[in-house]
TrEMBL record:
InterPro entries: ABC-2_transporter-like. This is ABC transporter permease. It holds the Pfam family ABC2_membrane_6. The chain crosses the membrane at residues 23-45, 57-75, 107-129, 141-168, 180-206, 226-246. It comes from Glycomyces rhizosphaerae. Keywords: Membrane, Transmembrane, Transmembrane helix.
Length: 262
């Protein structure tokens, strides 16, 4: 099965890089969003600070958000949804291949294709805007480690979203809702620390927060080493939990589709 996972991931990777314009536009649009964010927050913060972020820290936060956003939206949501919407899932059910595991390999393979553009864009932003550095070498290492969990978390959330296609027979609205929740509750749009206390609690109770707020908090030293390890443990727990939830929902939906002759 491991060889099959690699093969599916490689095919997805090659499919992504075949369209080089996708790389270009992902960095271009992400770059404009980053520039807009920098302009707005520079005006708001000035020489002071907001929510514990001074200007240098906010620059680092926004650049981390650019990096995580580039990775988070690089998967193959529509490819997964398409297999359900066009009926290909019926053929998948006849194959001796685990549907969820195969989609995970394809999804993460597609995300991997975005790594070069994400790194280049982030490096350029760091050179141009000179953000605050990590509070320590250990914080830098833990931040990099926390970023690895974006891959299983992004797949888990996207997989659950695409499973809704069994019921809705549509995906566009689901994708919009999913992307909006990730952008807002991750802290990409606005730092979680600036939200009302009750909304902060809600954000931390969901997996989305680990896309941007967790790596930024570790990088900037807003949590100590024990807190950083706790956040990483929470990421791992969510990655496993989303996988299990996806598996349970898949089993129920497949039974329902079979009952109705699908």
């Amino acid at each position: 099965m491991a060889n099959l996972d690699v093969a599916l991931a490689t095919i997805s990777f090659k499919r992504k890089i075949a369209y080089k314009s996708t790389w270009f536009f992902s960095v271009l649009f992400g770059g404009w969003s980053l520039l807009a964010g920098l302009a707005v927050w520079n005006h708001l913060i000035g020489d002071g600070e907001i929510g514990g972020y001074d200007w240098d820290a906010m620059k680092a936060y926004l650049i981390i958000g650019f990096l995580t956003g580039t990775l988070a939206w690089a998967g193959s949501d529509w490819e997964m949804a398409g297999r359900i919407l066009d009926g290909m899932v019926a053929i998948d059910l006849t194959k001796p291949i685990d549907f969820q595991r195969a989609r995970a390999a394809e999804y993460i393979g597609g995300m991997t294709a975005s790594i070069p553009s994400a790194i280049l864009g982030t490096a350029a932003a760091v050179l141009l805007f000179r953000p605050a550095g990590p509070v320590s070498p250990l914080a830098a290492a833990l931040t990099a480690f926390s970023l690895l969990f974006i891959f299983p978390l992004a797949f888990g959330i996207s997989y659950l979203a695409t499973l809704a296609c069994f019921l809705t027979q549509r995906f566009l609205g689901i994708q919009w809702a999913k992307d909006s929740m990730v952008a807002f509750f991750s802290g990409m749009m606005i730092p979680i620390a600036l939200m009302p206390v009750w909304l902060q609690g809600l954000a931390w109770a969901m997996p989305f927060v680990h896309f941007t707020t967790t790596p930024a908090s570790i990088y900037l030293g807003r949590v100590d080493t024990a807190g950083a390890l706790g956040l990483i443990a929470a990421e791992a727990a969510w990655a496993v939990g989303l996988w299990v939830i996806g598996r349970l929902i898949w089993r129920r939906l497949v039974k329902k589709v079979t009952v109705h002759g699908g």
